[in-house]
């Protein structure tokens, strides 16, 4: 098969409704190793598969994060959580990425910290498998299980950064999500319960036992949920503030273990 031209790929993508057709065409042609592979990728994208799953990777803080079918695609907005964690604890030596999905958050933290011990955990075995591909090369350990139950007890009281991008879409709003999320990402990665804060509440309640003195818990939330999320952190005994990025429309609750 002859190589596809940039303009023919962009035009097919545009006809399929892709808003950033030129950018996507460039990424597909740069990622495909053969013309046949480029054609197959184009077909999958035109059929509605999210771009990151077509490419097999997502860009996140300058890293190429491997993504696999059935695993949450890391969002650029979550780079703000990583930025806040690094600003709050620039010398962190023990890092946990809870609800890690692909492990993008943990990988980005480990890539910016000197010799940090990294643990990533998720209850979904498919996510854990994917995370292993991303954090393994950085020396990270991946665990499978429900929140803190997945972690080794040796981490109790030692965690400097506990980052958790938990599911936070209220159950009733899941059907309103774009089809790329609804049809291609698992419900367990999206559904945060009636008010979207079920998993956040459990993480905030458990965090103080795992955090080192001065250790930070960081969780992404929405503007609407932020006041209740802040209150939840405070009730668990953490000294709490909210960081907001207008650029990314991102809200991150940051709790510090002051005990
Ligand atoms: C919104 S996704 C975030 C993934 C990743 N941290 C990121 O930012 O790309 C939430 C993740 O939490 C995991 N999860 C949901 N409930 C969990 C639980 N009770 N214990 C462990 N992981 C859970 C899901 O499997 C999913 O991978």
UniProtKB/TrEMBL annotation:
Any GO molecular function: peptide chain release factor N(5)-glutamine methyltransferase activity
Presence of the UniProt keyword rRNA-binding in the record: no
Methyltransferase small domain sequence ranges: 64-165
S-adenosyl-L-methionine is among the record's keywords: yes
Domain of life: Bacteria
BP terms from Gene Ontology: methylation
Gene3D superfamilies, sorted: Vaccinia Virus protein VP39 (3.40.50.150)
Annotated catalysed reactions: L-glutaminyl-[peptide chain release factor] + S-adenosyl-L-methionine = N(5)-methyl-L-glutaminyl-[peptide chain release factor] + S-adenosyl-L-homocysteine + H(+)
Keywords: Methyltransferase, S-adenosyl-L-methionine, Transferase
Residue ranges the record marks as coiled coil: none
EC number assigned by the record: 2.1.1.297
Entries under InterPro entries matching the protein: HemK-like, MeTrfrase_put, N5-glutamine_MTase, SAM-dependent_MTases_sf, Small_mtfrase_dom
Protein name from the UniProt record: peptide chain release factor N(5)-glutamine methyltransferase
Protein's organism: Streptomyces phyllanthi
């Amino acid at each position: 098969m002859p190589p596809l031209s940039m303009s023919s790929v962009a035009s097919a993508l545009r006809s399929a409704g892709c808003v950033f057709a030129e950018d996507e065409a460039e990424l597909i042609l740069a990622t495909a190793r053969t013309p046949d592979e480029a054609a197959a990728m184009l077909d999958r994208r035109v059929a509605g598969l999210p771009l990151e799953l077509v490419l097999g990777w997502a860009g996140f803080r300058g890293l190429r994060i491997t993504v696999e079918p059935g695993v949450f695609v890391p969002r650029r907005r979550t780079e703000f959580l990583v930025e806040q964690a690094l600003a709050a604890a620039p010398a962190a030596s023990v890092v946990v990425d809870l609800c890690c999905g692909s492990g993008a958050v943990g990988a980005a933290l480990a890539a910016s910290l000197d010799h940090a011990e990294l643990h990533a955990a998720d209850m979904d075995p498919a996510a854990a498998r994917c995370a292993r591909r991303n954090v393994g090369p950085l020396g990270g350990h991946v665990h499978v299980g429900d929140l803190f139950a997945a972690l080794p007890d040796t981490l109790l009281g030692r965690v400097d950064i506990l980052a958790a991008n938990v599911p936070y879409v209220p159950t009733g709003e899941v059907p309103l999500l774009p089809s790329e999320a609804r049809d291609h990402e698992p419900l367990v990665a999206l559904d945060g319960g009636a008010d979207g804060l079920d998993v956040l509440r459990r993480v905030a309640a458990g965090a103080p036992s795992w955090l080192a003195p001065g250790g930070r818990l960081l969780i992404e939330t929405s503007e609407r949920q932020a006041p209740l999320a802040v209150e939840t952190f405070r009730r668990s005994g953490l000294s709490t503030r909210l960081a907001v990025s207008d650029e990314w429309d991102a809200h991150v609750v940051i709790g510090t273990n002051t005990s």
